[in-house]
C-alpha cells in the first residue's frame, strides 16, 4: 500500500512539474505562448474602435432624434420650412450645451405655452419617444458599417 501511495505522489509531482514548466514557458514567450503583445494590441485596438463606433452612433442617433423632435414641434408651432429647420438646429445645440432630454422637452413645452399651442406634456413626451425610435431605426440601418476611415476590421 505504501508503494502505491508513493507512485501516486510521484505521478502527481511529475504532472505538477510539467504544468509549471509549461506555464513558465508561456510566460517567457515559449512555444506554448499563444497570446503575444501584438495580439493584445489588436484586441485593444478592437475595443477602442468599437467604443468609438458606439459613441459616434449614439451621437448621430441623439442628433437625429433632436432634429425630428424639433421638426415635430415646429410643425405644431406653425413655423415655415426655414424656421422649422432653425428651430430643430436650436434643439440640437441645446442638447450639446446641456445634455439630457429634460431640457429639450422643457424648452418645447415652454415654446408651446408661449405660442398658445394646445399640446400637453404627455403628448410631447410621446413625440420625443417616437423621435427616438425613428432615429434609432434610421441610423441603425447603417450599423455596423464604419463611420470613418480609421475604423478597421480587427482579427479577421
Structural summary, described in words:
The protein has 156 residues and is mostly helical. The protein folds into 2 domains: 1-34; 42-140, Domain of unknown function DUF1476 (Major Prion Protein, Orthogonal Bundle). Helix content is 76%, strand content 0%. It is built from 5 helices and no strands. The longest helix has 41 residues, at 37-77. The protein is elongated.
Q: Please state the average pLDDT score.
A: 77
Order of helices and strands: HHHHH
The CATH class designation of the largest domain is Mainly Alpha
Q: Give the helix tally.
A: 5
CATH superfamily of the largest domain: Domain of unknown function DUF1476
The biggest beta sheet is recorded as: none
The shape, in one word, is elongated
The CATH topology annotation of the largest domain reads as Major Prion Protein
By secondary-structure content and strand pairing, the structural class works out as mainly alpha
- Architecture of the largest domain, according to CATH? Orthogonal Bundle
Helix content: over 70%
Strand content: under 5%
Low-pLDDT sequence parts: 5-17
Task: Report how far apart the termini are.
Answer: 56 Å
Amino acid at each position: 500500500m505504501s508503494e502505491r501511495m508513493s507512485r501516486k505522489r510521484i505521478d502527481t509531482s511529475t504532472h505538477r512539474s510539467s504544468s509549471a514548466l509549461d506555464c513558465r514557458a508561456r510566460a517567457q514567450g515559449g512555444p506554448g505562448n499563444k497570446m503575444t503583445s501584438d495580439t493584445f494590441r489588436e484586441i485593444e485596438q478592437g475595443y477602442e474602435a468599437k467604443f468609438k463606433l458606439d459613441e459616434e452612433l449614439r451621437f448621430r442617433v441623439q442628433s437625429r432624434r433632436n432634429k425630428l423632435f424639433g421638426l415635430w414641434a415646429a410643425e405644431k408651432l406653425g413655423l415655415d420650412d426655414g424656421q422649422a429647420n432653425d428651430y430643430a438646429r436650436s434643439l440640437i445645440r441645446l442638447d450639446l450645451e446641456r445634455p439630457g432630454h429634460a431640457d429639450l422637452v422643457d424648452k418645447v413645452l415652454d415654446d408651446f405655452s408661449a405660442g398658445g399651442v394646445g399640446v400637453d406634456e404627455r403628448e410631447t413626451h410621446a413625440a420625443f419617444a417616437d423621435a427616438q425610435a425613428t432615429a434609432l431605426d434610421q441610423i441603425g440601418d447603417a450599423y455596423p458599417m464604419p463611420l470613418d476611415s480609421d475604423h478597421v476590421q480587427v482579427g479577421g
